[in-house]
Structures
1.
Amino acid sequence: MKRITIGVLIVAALFMGAAFVVALTPPKLDPDDLRNIAGANVQNGEKVFWASGCAGCHAAPGATGDDRLVLAGGLGLDSHYGTFHAPNISPDKEHGIGDWSFYEFANAMKKGIGRHGENLYPSLPYTSYVRMNNQDIRDLHAFLMTLPESSAPSKPHDITFPFNIRLSVSFWKLLYFDSESPAQLENAAPDVLRGQYLVEGPAHCGECHTPRNLFGGLKYDHWLEGGPNPEGGDGIVPDITPGSGDIGDWTASEIADYLETGFTPDYDTVGGSMVEVQKNISHLSRADLEAIGAYLKAIPAN
Ligand code: HEC
Ligand code: HEC
């Protein structure tokens, strides 16, 4: 009798365990959603590449000039959980992503899922890239495949238990991974909507300019209000809402100037982690930079 009860308990436990694992298995993109996109436009892919700052993390540390197009990885990203290392995403088939299908690539970008179905860490900012449209992802993929190969092996991450278990990211995703737009601006002018797409999607401005909770989730009700530097240290990331004491009185064009040149209206130069962002974003057209400015004037003030 007792033996049967224990047997039943074990079976029930196994069943619950299996249900638990299924519930935590990260869901992938619906392949049907990717069927109707047009052929790849490599020129647009290059623009998306600069807007989304891939080189900032995936170029070898210290690379300059054309070497920034060799996405060999290796940069260490410090966090409260340890150090993440950006992997090699060059078209090398063995050490990079040259062998990945477009579907696999799109799942990494929009679902945070790796090639073998595993969770990726949100140090790859898929929490923003999820808002990118599939055509841009297609074009970006095609552009990446034109870049030089690197045979540098990716470095393992150096993070603490339990965060080194990728399944733990499933809990995090359930709580903090949301594709909804953080600012409700439905009836806004087309340039504001274009700026919204760039800021909330590819350019991932909120990943640094929005404060995070204890578990690293973005506080969407404080969208772009600034806060402590997510990479630790005692740096501060400024408030860039219209209520900001610093840029509240900049015009949309002055914001665009800053992104284009790296100079503030007072001729201060851009600093900190914004230097890398400015270098990448400055490749965008003036119209896109003005659109970012227009969006930053249209969102609610802090
Ligand atoms: C803020 C830094 C950062 C930026 C910006 C960034 N990545 Fe990453 N990326 C990472 C890190 C760190 C990982 C490793 C994540 C992991 O191991 O779970 C990663 C992983 C990846 C992977 C999975 C690689 C693999 O071997 O599993 C792909 C693909 C990728 N990134 C592509 C991109 C592309 C394309 C862009 C630009 C649109 C980009 N990343 C922008 C940091 C970044
Ligand atoms: C990797 C983190 C990071 C990302 C991503 C980022 N920023 Fe910044 N940003 C900063 C930091 C840090 C500063 C402070 C720079 C300084 O001290 O000069 C800053 C400064 C600024 C300023 C000037 C504010 C001031 O008070 O001087 C503006 C405007 C700005 N960012 C806009 C943006 C926009 C728009 C985006 C997206 C295209 C963006 N940032 C993405 C980290 C980031």
2.
Amino acid sequence: MQIEYLNSGLEELNRELAAAFSGACELSAEQMSACRWAVLDMPGAADAPDGVQQELIGRLEAARQAARERGLGQVFGWCMVGAQAAATGQWDHQDDCALSAVTNFLREVVPTPASVLDVAAGTGHCSFPLAADGYNIALFDSAAGFLELAVKDADRQGLADRLDALLCGTFADLPALPDDAYDACLCIGSIFYLPSPHQVEQAVTQLARIASKSIVFDVTSKLGTIRQLGTDDSDFDFSPSAAEEILSTGITPPGKPEHGREVYSCFSAAELRHLVEGAGMKLQQLVGYGSTANETSDILTRLPPQQRTHIDQLLTGDDAALDRAPNLLALCTKAK
Ligand SMILES: C[S@@+](CC[C@H](N)C(=O)[O-])C[C@H]1O[C@@H](n2cnc3c(N)ncnc32)[C@H](O)[C@@H]1O
């Protein structure tokens, strides 16, 4: 099945990355990862690269520069991961994404026969169980390498007939898709990579337009993110100003350089309810999930009094149990 590109700059970027990794096929997966990290200035990069590694790093650096010039800097890192995954045939990303809540909800509100667009799908980890249930699925992602790998996985699992389309685009390309094109849109583990809550809102509005019946998506929570600041599990250092920035803007500070993270967007449960309503959807269930790694942390007590007040509202409000969870999953139907 051919990949349909919704963005010509992304097509070029993914081709350049695929060529770079396939030109380095004698490297092990570990060496390829080290080259990726070198390009992102992360530890673990190859210290004394041999010729092939040096060449791969050079090609990836050129692709990164071109991606930035095309306005694709935000997706570059994931496109590299996808290209490496396609070159090696391996990607073992298996986040806890409350998958059973997603599939049970869609089975109830959008029973088969039905179509589902999996946005920022990766290799289809969240939608393949639906395909196995008889749903027709389409995968949308900015990393073409993941889409290629998904086709192979679908073949292996006997699900090729259920895979209707492979669309390569960024969230900014969603307006190219028609209204009510799918019964449901799914977007898991991804939308918070958008660098502002406003961009998340725009993306959710698009999902709501493209789906005729239901959307399901998750975000990172403000309090969950603050509670993890500075811990080994967090991409972000602790500081009261970082906590304040998250509380007031919903945007994290830049991540630790060694994790190669850009900023990401966070929401309180109340803000998420508001967002869903604004997109013309009805929130049927809001699920908090993810491990609360930081129960014993003293981070909240280290905040100055004024910030503690904001935090206390989240800790004690009606949504306290949800707000404490690292991630919030919104299960929505179209408002009539
Ligand atoms: C953590 S993975 C989640 C994949 C899949 N939904 C899952 O749960 O297994 C994040 C995915 O988001 C995609 N992604 C990140 N930013 C994106 C953007 N701006 N537009 C489209 N896809 C994006 C990445 O390529 C990657 O496949």
